[in-house]
Amino acid sequence: MPRISMYQASVPRLVNVLTNLSGLLDKAQAFVEAGHASERALMDDRLIADMYPFSKQVQIACDKARSVVARLAGLDVPRYEDNEQTLAELQQRIARSIAFLRSVPAERIDGTDERPITLPVTGTPTTYQGLQLLLGHSMPNVYFHTVTAYNLLRRSGVPVGKRDFLGEP
Hints:
Elements: H1 6-33, H2 39-44, H3 54-73, H4 87-103, H5 106-109, E1 116-121, E2 124-129, H6 130-155, H7 162-166
Antiparallel strand pairs: 1-2
Helix pairs in contact: 1-3, 1-4, 1-6, 3-4, 3-6
């Protein structure tokens, strides 16, 4: 029976999600350029007052993807300043995140399913096994923030649909 490796479950999937997120931003940029919305309004939009704005949703999706891959691979987590003010700047963050993910070789990640990894979760050190971190914490976070960004764009009228979110798996 085929077995999926930790690398297969992480890097290609995360690259796919971030690539699709980039495609959503392409459509948002075209929507802005066509005069249908202000870029600032899209960047600052929130689903509800106590949720992060669109720009932060994109930042966090990228951060969580880089973080889990780095932690599984035993590398320092690349940190980016949260200073993007435009869709183009968010695109650069996505591109840098994808480049980092692709730079990590499979042999650094495969076999980490039972490795204990401790990280601060809401200020409290929490230890996960690699597989638990990937599938129970990080992937859900990446998808949560990506789908929230998608929903914000969709609500604003940007012509995106399920196929844009899913891309080419």
